[in-house]
C-alpha cells in the first residue's frame, strides 16, 4: 500500500517518460486512462503540469516543481516507513574483535550472549593471536577492539580499561601438592614445568623469578600456545604459571587447580583497547561495556581464590 495517490504516482512515471503512451505501458494501463488521471491532478492543483506535443510530453515549471516536491515526499515517506519497521526490532551489530587465545572460552560465549540481548543479530569477526599479532592487525585497520595482556600505548590504539591479574601456579588435581593456599615458588619448581614461550608477554618476568631461585628447572614444554600448555597441564605432565583468565574455565570444571604464588607480586595487565578508525560508531560504548562486564565476572571469581 502506498501513502500517495494513484495520480501522483502516475505523474512521476510520466515525468520520467518520453510520452504518455510509454508511461501508460510502464504502468500497465491504457493511455486514455492515464490522461484522465493527469487531468484530475491538474484540476486538483488548478494549474497546467504538462505540455503535450507531437514530440512527446514535457513538464511545465509548475509540473517540475510538483515532481521535485513529490520526490521529496516519497523519500521522506520511505525513511519514515523504515523507522517504523525498525522501531520494534533490535538493531544488528557487526564488529571485529581481537583476543588472545586463552580468553576465547571465557570471554566470547558470554560476550556474544550479552550483545545479542541488546542488538539482536550479532556478526562477530574474531581474530585470535598474541598481543603483538593483534596489534599488527589493528595497525592494518583490520580490527575494531582488542582484548589482550600488556597492550602498549600506541597512536592507533586507545586503552579504555585495564585489569590486573595475578600469575599463579596451575596444575592438575592429580599432582601431589597439598593445601589450597599460596604456593612457594621453590616448591613449584620441584616439578616439571609447562611454560609460555618468549612470544608471550609474561615470559620475561616469569623467567627472571625462576632464575632468582638459583635452580635448574626441568621444562617439559614451552609454547606460544596457551592451549598447548593447558593440554599438558590437564594431563598432569607438570606445573605451569598462568593467570586466572587463562585457566578459570578449567578450574571451574575441576580439571585444573590455581594457587597464588606466596610472597610474589607477579601480575599481568589485561587491557581493552579501541582501534582508532574502527567501524563501530555509536555501538562502541555498548560493546566496550559488554566486554568490561564479562571480564568483571572473571575478576570477581579470582577474588574468591585463596589470598596470598
What structural class do helix, strand and pairing data support? alpha/beta
How many individual β-strands?
11
Report on the biggest sheet: 9 strands, mixed
Helix content: 40-55%
Q: Residue ranges: pLDDT <50 for 5 or more in a row?
A: none
**How much of the residues is beta strand, in percent?**
15-25%
| Straight-line distance between termini | 70 Å
Tell me, what's the shape?
rod-shaped
What series of H and E elements makes up the topology?
HHHEEHEHEHEEHEHEHEHEEH
Radius of gyration: 33 Å
CATH topology of the largest domain: D-Maltodextrin-Binding Protein, domain 2
CATH top level of the largest domain is Alpha Beta
CATH architecture of the largest domain: 3-Layer(aba) Sandwich
Number of helices: 11
Number of domains: 2
Relevant terms:
single chain, Arc Repressor Mutant, subunit A, D-Maltodextrin-Binding Protein, domain 2, 308 residues, 9-stranded mixed sheet, two-stranded antiparallel ribbon, 11 strands, 11 helices
Overview of the molecule:
The chain is α/β, with parallel strands linked by helices. It has 2 domains: 6-87, Arc Repressor Mutant, subunit A; 93-303, D-Maltodextrin-Binding Protein, domain 2, CATH 3.40.190.290. The protein is 44% helix and 22% strand. It has helices at residues 6-15, 20-27, 31-45, 61-87, 104-119, 131-139, 185-188, 203-212, 226-234, 244-252, 284-303; strands at 50-53, 56-59, 93-99, 122-128, 145-149, 157-171, 193-196, 219-223, 239-243, 257-260, 267-275. The strands form 2 sheets. Strands 3, 4, 5, 6, 7, 8, 9, 10 and 11 form a 9-stranded mixed beta sheet that branches. α1 crosses α3, α2 (20-27) crosses α3 and α5 packs across α11. The longest helix has 27 residues, at 61-87. It is rod-shaped and about 105 Å long. The chain starts with 5 loop residues before the first helix and ends in a 5-residue tail after the last helix. The mean pLDDT is 85.
Amino acid at each position: 500500500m502506498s501513502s500517495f495517490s494513484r495520480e501522483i504516482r502516475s505523474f512521476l512515471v510520466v515525468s520520467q517518460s518520453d510520452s504518455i503512451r510509454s508511461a501508460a505501458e510502464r504502468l500497465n494501463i491504457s493511455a486514455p486512462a492515464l490522461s484522465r488521471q493527469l487531468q484530475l491532478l491538474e484540476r486538483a492543483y488548478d494549474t497546467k503540469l504538462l505540455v503535450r506535443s507531437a514530440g512527446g510530453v514535457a513538464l511545465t515549471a509548475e509540473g517540475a516543481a510538483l515532481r521535485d516536491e513529490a520526490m521529496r515526499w516519497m523519500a521522506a515517506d520511505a525513511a519514515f516507513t523504515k523507522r517504523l519497521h525498525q522501531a520494534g526490532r533490535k538493531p544488528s551489530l557487526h564488529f571485529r574483535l581481537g583476543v588472545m587465545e586463552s580468553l576465547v572460552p571465557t570471554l566470547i560465549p558470554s560476550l556474544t550472549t550479552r550483545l545479542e540481548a541488546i542488538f539482536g543479530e550479532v556478526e562477530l569477526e574474531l581474530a585470535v593471536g598474541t598481543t603483538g599479532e593483534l596489534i599488527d592487525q589493528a595497525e592494518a585497520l583490520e580490527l575494531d577492539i582488542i582484548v589482550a595482556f600488556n597492550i602498549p600505548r600506541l597512536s592507533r590504539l586507545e586503552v579504555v580499561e585495564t585489569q590486573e591479574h595475578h600469575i599463579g601456579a596451575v596444575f592438575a588435581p592429580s599432582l601431589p601438592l597439598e593445601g589450597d593456599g599460596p604456593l612457594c615458588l621453590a616448591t613449584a619448581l620441584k616439578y616439571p614445568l609447562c611454560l609460555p614461550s618468549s612470544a608471550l608477554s609474561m615470559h620475561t618476568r616469569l623467567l627472571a623469578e625462576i632464575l632468582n631461585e638459583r635452580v635448574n628447572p626441568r621444562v617439559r614444554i614451552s609454547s606460544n600456545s596457551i592451549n598447548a600448555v593447558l593440554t599438558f597441564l590437564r594431563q598432569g605432565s607438570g606445573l605451569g604459571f598462568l593467570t586466572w583468565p587463562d585457566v578459570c574455565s578449567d578450574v571451574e570444571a575441576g580439571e585444573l587447580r590455581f594457587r597464588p604464588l606466596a610472597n610474589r607480586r607477579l601480575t599481568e595487565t589485561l587491557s581493552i583497547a579501541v582501534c582508532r578508525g574502527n567501524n563501530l560508531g555509536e555501538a562502541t560504548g555498548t560493546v566496550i561495556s559488554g566486554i568490561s562486564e564479562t571480564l568483571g565476572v572473571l575478576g570477581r571469581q579470582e577474588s574468591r581464590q585463596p589470598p596470598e
